[in-house]
Amino acid sequence: MRVQSVLVLIAIYRLVGAFYANEWVVRVLGGVQIARQLADELNYDLVRQVLGFDDTYIYSHSSQPSIGKRSNTNLTLRLCDDSRVEWAEQQTWRRRDKRGLLDDKIQSRRHLFGSVGFFNDELWEHQWYMQDTRTEPGLPRLDLKVIPVYLKGITGRNVRVVVLDDGLEFQHTDLYPNYDPEISHDLNDGDPDPTPRYSSITPNNHGTRCAGEIAMVANNKKCGVGIAFNAKIGGIRMLDGQGGSAMDRIEGEALNFALDKVDIYSASWGPTDDGVTVEGPGRLAQEALERGVRKGRGGKGVIYVWASGNGGSKDDCSCDGYTSSIFTLSVGSASEQGQFPWYGELCPSTLASTYSSGAYSDQMIATTDLHNSCTVKHTGTSAAAPIAAGIIALVLEVNPKLTWRDVQHLVVWTADMTPLAYNEGWIVNAAGLHVNRRFGFGLMDALALTKAAANWTTVPPWKHCTIPLNCTSLDISRREESKSSEKSPTKLLQIFNKCGKI
Ligand SMILES: [Ca+2]
Ligand SMILES: [Ca+2]
Ligand SMILES: [Ca+2]
Ligand SMILES: [Ca+2]
Questions:
Q1: Together in a domain, 185 and 285
Q2: Are 77 and 103 within one domain?
Q3: Both 61 and 112 in a single domain?
Q4: What is the Å distance from ligand 1's center to 106 Cα?
Q5: pLDDT tens for residues 91-144?
Q6: Distance from the CA of 237 to the center of ligand 3, in angstroms?
Q7: 3-state SS of 421-441?
């Protein structure tokens, strides 16, 4: 019975898109004593502080079910009405989709090209995007130009990359030598071990696949070669919440986890790509992204690499506030034919692209898989973003002084439109650069990027201008007024600022 009701809840959740948790995130200034006192007085339980956030605590309430389809407005208002509370929000589980495509839709094709035998790894010959494997000059050149970078001894050493996803099988023998426990964690179960939950229903292989693309060990005859095969790799398990969901608190903790150690965060997920969902980072996730670029890497800013989405023509990546955020470096994909793939989304925030899967018969991406196995079937913009993260790890090894903005500028200036030139949509922007809403400024070019990075003059810091708005005459909707008729519009506005739309 219990299992059945959970399944029903998950089914409803899939329809309505959000579920309310018995969890309030509350910002209370003045220290944990005051936060505890407040919880005691108002009859909440103080669970713990939110990881990485000062003055921010998790409260729960004994009257609230662990998951429900309605918010508990009264419990939120009780917190917001207290002068010690800066803001409070009941946490909701929101669906976050991984940006790979289902295996069963796709059939792998025997690769067309011969191997150059550069590495002895069993999947090296399937890593078509890392080498120029043309057997005839008439075939398209499929090459992110990493080998010339390796030949200079640049392999991602001393760069720490973390994959935010459904877990990381860190004991995988093609990952373990590069595994970095200091930047890894399990936010779904609240423990330091990010190993995914093995399930026959949900293949939680996505994080392990993304991590392998970045940091598989080279020349060990196992699986393939990571783009930055000497980088350190971590995993945050954070996508395995209720029915494949996350909440703002978990996303915020993930985006700032080990902020003093991580160089690059790679995320291949986001709001559902169904063409009707418009969502972005919540309060904590937004705060985390901004803190990441201001405080990470000793003030130079961490790099957030983000997959642009798999919704195809029915969706638009501008409706995804994670990938369209200025703080994320958004990556699209191109197929092995140099085509815009059927799942690709158009929007102006995509900065560049890397290779990934395309039409059903096109080759896909080779990487690590669960149970110490390997796959040649990683797909979608899920596979494109970690390749970009690996290339950026090479760039940061060349020049660790680069800021997050330098990296974005470098990607824009060095991306190559030539391999993608036959697609529609290219325009020349006011700066004289070719740009396309399908691909950004072109295909990432590891050689051009690392060369430009070596001699780069840092760009000015980010400037953010705000205009103060006088809100006293704001009209509050009649619905809100009638619901809380005893409250003045000014009071309602205060509540809105403290509690959001409740
Ligand atoms: Ca765990
Ligand atoms: Ca290997
Ligand atoms: Ca989308
Ligand atoms: Ca972005």
A1: yes
A2: no
A3: no
A4: 31
A5: 999 999 999 886 544 444 334 333 457 899 999 999 999 998 777 877 777 889
A6: 22
A7: CCCCCCEECCCCCEEECCCEC
